[in-house]
């Protein structure tokens, strides 16, 4: 799992039937200091995350499909939730 920030939205007029009704967002992974690190990813969101929000991302292929609830869906990266707060020592 990754912590990431939503940095963009992908607009697709045609997409796989399993993805219809779901948003495609661009997320930027964050390191332990919550600074951008690595390449941006496209993630499927079920409508919970907004631009600029910090999110919990499953970026593990099969785990993302299972979290999405459909093992046949062509998804590698899935937004599992919106993070309200992170407490670290």
Structural overview:
With 89 residues, the chain is mostly beta strands. The chain has a single domain, classed as Beta Barrel (OB fold (Dihydrolipoamide Acetyltransferase, E2P)). Helix content is 8%, strand content 35%. It is built from one helix and five strands. The radius of gyration is 13 Å and the shape is globular. It starts with a strand and ends in a 7-residue tail after the last strand. 21% of the residues are buried.
Total number of domains: 1
Beta-strand share of residues: 25-35%
Write down how many β-strands occur, each being a DSSP E stretch of 2 or more residues.
Answer: 5
Give the class from helix and strand content and strand pairing. Answer: mainly beta
Radius of gyration: 13 Å
Order of helices and strands: EEEEHE
What is the CATH C level class, in words? Mainly Beta
From the coordinates shown, what is the CATH architecture? Beta Barrel
Distance between the termini: 20 Å
CATH superfamily: EutN/Ccml
Low-confidence stretches: none
Q: Which fold name fills CATH's third level, the topology? A: OB fold (Dihydrolipoamide Acetyltransferase, E2P)
- Main sheet? 5 strands, antiparallel
Mean pLDDT: 87
């Amino acid at each position: 799992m990754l912590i990431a920030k939503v940095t963009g939205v992908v607009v697709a007029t045609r997409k796989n039937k399993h993805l219809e009704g779901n948003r495609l967002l661009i997320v930027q992974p964050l390191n332990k200091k919550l600074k951008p690190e690595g390449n941006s990813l496209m993630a499927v969101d079920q409508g919970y995350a907004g631009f600029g929000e910090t999110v919990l991302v499953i970026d593990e292929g099969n785990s993302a499909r299972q979290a999405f609830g459909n093992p046949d869906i062509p998804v590698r990266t899935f937004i599992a939730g919106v993070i309200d707060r992170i407490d670290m020592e």
